Amino acid sequence: MADSIKEMGFAGLGRMGGNMAARLLKNSKIKVTVWNRSPEPVKEAVKKGAAASKDMKDLVGRLKGKRKAVWLMLPAGNVTEQYFQELLRLLNKGDILIDGGNSNIHDTLRRHKEAEKRGILMLDIGVSGGIVAATRGYAMMAGGSKEAYYFVEPAISAMCMKEGYSYMGEGGAGHYVKMVHNAIEYGMMQAIAEGFDLLKNGRFKNLDLGKIAHLWNHGTIVTSFLMEMSESALKNNGNELSKLEPWVDDSGEGQWAAQEALEFQVPFVANAYALHTRRISRKKADYAYKMLAAIRNEFGAHAVKTKK
What is the pLDDT of residues 237-256, one digit of tens each? Predict the structure, then answer.
């Protein structure tokens, strides 16, 4: 494609962003200029071929192409809002602003309107794959300007698994699809965790849960990425998960999806139940919640609480 991206600004090098930038550098000829709130991830990215910038203004200033594109990979909420507003002031008409974080759909819809008023093309891209996607490749769901999507598609392709990305539709569609994906993830993880709880505390004692998870990953109907993470969690923590507290966090998307289902009167029973069990986990010490916490930690390095 003649008119496609040659350089990109990448802001946010956390547990997802740093690996995404590394894949972009490794798998494409796109020049990448990075910025991060703390300096160490920037140094690591520079070692892999990125150019460094000291702040957002410097980041935008180092992009020399006719059309500038900046990817925000920052925590949802106030942090993304702060730098989104700064980029609206720094970018010009026709430039591209990408929010790759897990932003609330209502924030995303508002931001699309604000960007449109300034003539800036915006994409909301839901990113999935966890920390293991650094080697496997990511999955991405994009919403917003179709023109912007096709311009930056080579960068998206470089970061993703083959056939692991697509354009979802108008502004907000990318984050919306990712929100529902994460709610489904809640439900699937809950089913796995409850199954292992029954294996551990049911009729047959001393079952080898790690062996079962390994077997289930070879040809059974429940073979899956999450079952792989279950196997890994048991291998790394032992069948008893004795060092983990039965405390499971949630990052917001499950609640947003449940609220959306209520608003549009769509039954959402299994996934809403899974959301509520995470809150119950903080008050009740069941094995299933240890298993949930362990799986989340394996695929996303999400925080767990360990016994002292």
Answer: 999 999 999 989 988 999 99
- Residue 108 reports pLDDT greater than 60: yes
- Give the active site residue among 31, 68, 178, 200: 178
Domain count, the chain: 2
Q: Which residue among 140, 169, 198 closes a domain?
A: 169
Q: Is the pLDDT of residue 1 over 70?
A: no
Together in a domain, 11 and 135: yes
Indicate whether 162 and 14 sit together in one domain. yes
Whether 156 is in a domain gets the answer yes
Which residue range(s) make up the domain with 247?
A: 178-300
| Contact (CB, 8 A) for 297 and 289 | no
68 HSE (CA, 13 A, CB side):
22
Q: Residue 194 catalytic?
A: no
Catalytic residue status for 44: no
Q: Which of 68, 185, 200, 298 is catalytic?
A: 185
Q: What's the Cα-to-Cα distance from 240 to each of 146, 222, 275, 303, rounded to whole Å?
A: 49, 22, 24, 19
- Nearest-angstrom CA–CA distance, 132 and 129: 7
CB of 123 within 8 A of CB of 144?
A: yes
Last residue of a domain, one of 120, 143, 169: 169
State if pTM tops 0.85: yes
User: What is the rounded CA–CA span in Å between residue 211 and residue 13?
Assistant: 36
